[in-house]
Amino acid sequence: MSNQLDFKELSADEVVEKLQVNPSTGLMTEQIGSRQQQYGFNEIPEKEETLLSRILKRFWGPIPWMIEIAGILSAAVGKWEDFGIIMILLLVNVVIDFRQEAKAISALKLLKEKLARLALVLRDGRWSEIPARELVPGDVIKLRIGNVIPADVTLIDGAYLQVDQSALTGESVPADKMTGDIAYANSVIKMGEMVAVVTGTGLNTFFGHTVELVAQAEKHEHSHLQKAVVNIGNYLILIAGVMVVLIIFVGLYRHDSLMEILRFSLVLTVASIPVALPAVLSVTMAVGAMRLAQHQAIVSRLVAIEELAGVDILCCDKTGTLTKNQMKLEEPALFNNFTRDDALFYAALASRVENNDPLESPIFQAVQHSHIQQRLSDCEQLDFTPFDPVRKRTEATIKFGEDSSRIVTKGAPQAVLALCDDAVVDETVIRQVEQFAHNGYRTLGIGVRSPDESTFHFVGLLPFYDPPRDDSAETIATAKRLGLDVKMITGDNLAIARQIAEILGIQGKIRNHTELSEERPTELLLIADVVTETLYGRLKPDATSDEVRAVAEEVVNRLEEQLRDVRPHNGFVRRHESEIVRLIEETGGFAQVFPEDKYQIVDRLQLNDHIVAMTGDGVNDAPALKKADAGIAVSGATDAARAAADIVLLLPGLSVIINAIEESRQIFGRMKSYAIFRIAETLRVILFMTLAITVFNFYPVTAIMIIILALLNDIPIMAIAYDNAKIEPHPVRWNMREVLTIASVLGLAGVASSFLLFFILEEMQFSRGLMQAILFLKLDVAGHSTIYVARTGERHFWERPFPSLKLLIPALSTRIVGTLIACYGIFMEPVGWKMTGYIYLYATVWFVFNDFLKVAVYRMLNRTKWLLVREHVHEIIK
After folding, report:
1. Average pLDDT over residues 219-238
2. Measured distance between the N- and C-terminal CA atoms of the chain, rounded to whole angstroms
3. CA gap 721, 718 in Å, rounded
4. What pLDDT shows up at residue 756?
5. Domains of the chain (ranges, CATH numbers)
6. How far is the C-alpha of 83 from the C-alpha of 69, rounded, in Å?
7. What is d(CA 434, CA 443) in angstroms, rounded to the nearest whole number?
8. Does residue 694 contact residue 247 with C-beta atoms inside 8 Å?
9. What's the pTM value of the predicted model, to 2 decimals?
10. Above 80 in pLDDT, residue 338?
11. Rounded CA gap, 716 and 633, in Å?
């Protein structure tokens, strides 16, 4: 019954009859339950990984293999305590990784639920929006421009649809659909509005059959941040590998036990590898996504959070993002002795409340609480012709009382003027329309005639204005403080765009979309300039040079105005790509843009090493949203735009986007802190171990101590996703030179402090076992301190933002555990509380020293950076 093939040859009436549905009322409640049971939900079931598979895969891979081999070698030489601790390390990593993955999966499920596609469905005689997954065969639904068709359907009522089904059928040209035609699930409606009946859902659709037949390759997407962190992981593994090889060669040279050398080397390698890296990434992204959801920004592609941190150019739509998307009616321009009340009265008669048209709603609001409402209640709309792109106007036949009637029309001023026959009024109206347009207003013309007249009387012009949102100017100022260049990209006319840009303080000239063309009329403007100066100078020899220049500039400006809406032909000289990029960078935005212009703007900015965020809401915005580093579908966006976007906003306005960018920069800060901490710790431990073994023939800590240190370090670092982080005042990207320099300095300082303590203990003639326990305690305490040094960046550790409790509690807890292990001698000789106090004091002194050292290195790097910039500027000036 629900197979689309069953309905392909049937007419609309036959389909309705076969599905046992009344098109005027839709399905009844009692029908829906049985069909839901029979056909299930309207969704393609996702193949979920089993719980056992998710657990077992964590014991498989390079890092688990090394831990497992180290455990086997410990068992082989009878080191059962070491074997037990190594197995605990393996299990802890498995549990942490599994738990964080479960959190990420849960968060993504919640976000997907918020992004669930809706369908406008007729049930029990009432239209309502329901989740598309609840549709069943026989449901009557309404399809509109921008919708993604939620199921296979047969069209049963309406004029026509233009459907883009290229993703399903490969057709490059949108298909025109009429009553009786079928339309497939996941096609995009480009034009039109029709009513349809659902014939296939879920796997029983054309798309569903395709999914069953084709195994789709999973798309792996890696952002700049993920690539950087993976590179850091590889760098650490390389360092560990070199050090371990050195230890093995020295051990073999000294004729140490091969089994012991291999076991220790494996343990040291495991401790140096960023085992927590995947878990830190996943939990940080998931937590960030949930925080953005609290700001009503739903993330559909997690890596977009990372990209937002580096966004330096934000291309945003005007309507609904910078403005309220609620048209406001200004004072009308009146003609032929009609009054303001007449203009509003006839405009209301040529409109319909149920259409919810953005230009008609202000008209009804204006008449709602006035005596005009009484006049309207005395009228009856006998016939109504809606607006269409060809006629560009509405028309209604109105009955006044018993015997009188009028025909009223409302629409584009030029379309209404064409129905009138008054040349004097025509000229006045055209001038007024131009004046309104210059001031940034949209206008509707109103006309009226009696049935026995052949032409209309022009009543007046209604000017409309979409005012800026109350928070837009302040939000743009905030964006500037964050180092963002906000550009307005709009399809509205140039005058409106420039007026809004001026009100909001958007810097840079707003240009027409034609200036993006590689062909330019510069040569023509230059010729006009020269010819005008020459002719005017010859015709008026007594004119001053300033007067001649002013006339020439006026001619050039008027010619440029005329050429704005004309795309130059191939006879003009082509612009260089860099010139167009520079134009886009310097401008405040573009008006009257087409979808291909938006795509071109994003593409060219990306080629010039910008990270670009783009907002959009329509079907035609989808390519630009997909192309952008961070595509943002604004509130009220079509299904197609939401599907193409990385982030979907549930509230209107620009402030939501700024909140998302601030959150992403905090996430970046946390990841950078983790990178510096992890590199510094690896260098600190492995360099100290390697040098102590190769130079002094002394193992500073045992294999089991290394395992415990790795455990105590990995557990608190998981909480870095919940830490407080500073919002940087500029876009942030990975500066590996800076990260590696800071981490290396901190790591080498740690090595120096460890060797200084080693020499002190040697001088005091402590036993080797006790020295190892003391060095273990020092490495544990100092390692936890490095977290607080790394997290504050260029600032000192006592400056805001302070660590969050979610970071402090696990960090302090693991430090206490490490202290108790050393103090009471678990798996080692006991250190005692007195020595523990000395070690804490020693580590604190070095902690403060490391913090000042870090700040000094940051300042040195910044000074070097500014010197390089200044030299570059001097070279450009020369």
Report:
1. 65
2. 79
3. 7
4. 95
5. 1-42+135-216 (2.70.150.10), 275-292+666-873 (1.20.1110.10), 307-323+468-658 (3.40.50.1000), 328-465 (3.40.1110.10)
6. 10
7. 10
8. yes
9. 0.70
10. yes
11. 36
Residue position matching structure tokens 């959150």: 663
Note the pLDDT of residue 408.
95
* C-alpha to C-alpha distance for 681 and 71, rounded to whole angstroms: 23
Cα–Cα distance, 320 to 335 (Å, whole number): 33
CA atoms of 278 and 693, how far apart (whole Å)? 31
Instruction: Give pLDDT, residue 573.
Output: 47
Using CA atoms, how far apart are residues 391 and 416, in angstroms rounded to an integer? Answer: 10
CA–CA distances in Å: residue 724 to residues 287, 800, 804, 806, 850: 13, 9, 6, 9, 21
- Residues 271-312 have pLDDT tens digits of 666 666 656 666 777 777 778 888 788 887 777 777 888 899
Q: What is the dihedral of CA 689, 690, 691, 693, to 10 degrees?
A: 80
- By three-state DSSP, how is residue 158 classified? strand
DSSP assignments along 659-705, one per residue: HHHHHHHHHHHHHHHHHHHHHHHHHHHHHHHHHHHHHH---SS-HHH
Nearest to 616 by CA among 644, 597, 589, 656: 644
Report pLDDT for 571: 46
Beta strands at 126-131 and 118-123: parallel, antiparallel or unpaired? antiparallel
Q: Which residue type is seen at 507?
A: Q
Residues 6+ apart with CB under 8 A from 458: 335, 336, 416, 417, 420, 422, 425, 429, 445, 446, 447
d(CA 398, CA 264): 94
Give one DSSP letter per residue of 773-813, joined into a string: HHHHHHHHHHHHHHHHHHTTTTS-TTSSSPPPHHHHHHHHH
How far is residue 314's CA from residue 294's CA, in Å, rounded to a whole number? 22
Place of tokens 């998307």: 325
Pairing between β-strand 328-329 and β-strand 457-465 as defined by DSSP bridges: antiparallel
Which residues 6+ apart lie within 8 Å of 771 measured at CB? 700, 758, 761, 762
Catalytic position from the list 312, 317, 342, 646: 317
Nearest residue to 323 via CA among 484, 590, 501 = 501
Both tokens assigned to 721: 């996703």
Instruction: Decide: helix, strand or coil at residue 408.
Output: strand
> For the chain, how many residues are written?
878
Top pLDDT among 828 and 112 is at 828
CB 445 within 8 A of CB 413: yes
Give the rounded distance of the alpha carbon of 91 from its chain centre: 36
Cis peptide bond prior to 521, omega within 30° of 0? no
| DSSP run (H or E) holding 384 | strand 379-385
Nearest CA to 510 among 529, 492, 484? 492
Pick the more confident residue, 190 or 505: 505
Q: Return the DSSP state at 219.
A: P
Q: What is the pLDDT of residues 622-678, one digit of tens each?
A: 788 888 888 888 877 766 677 778 888 888 877 888 888 888 898 888 888 888 888
Tell me the two tokens of residue 242.
């070199």
**Amino acid of residue 259:** M
**Can you tell me the distance from the alpha carbon of 418 to that of 323, in angstroms, rounded to the nearest whole number?**
32
Q: CA–CA separation, 785 vs 478, rounded Å?
A: 35
* Residues contacting residue 157 through CB under 8 Å, at least 6 positions apart: 12, 23, 179, 194, 195
The Cα 153–Cα 163 span in angstroms is: 12
Q: Which pair of tokens denotes residue 422?
A: 């008054």
d(CA 84, CA 359): 74
User: Any catalytic annotation for residue 317?
Assistant: yes
- How far is residue 60 CA from its own chain's centroid? 34
d(CA 358, CA 360): 6
Alpha-carbon span 802 to 792, nearest angstrom: 9
Q: Which residues contact 428 (CB under 8 A, 6 or more apart)?
A: 335
Closest by CA position to 510, among listed 480, 477, 526, 486: 486
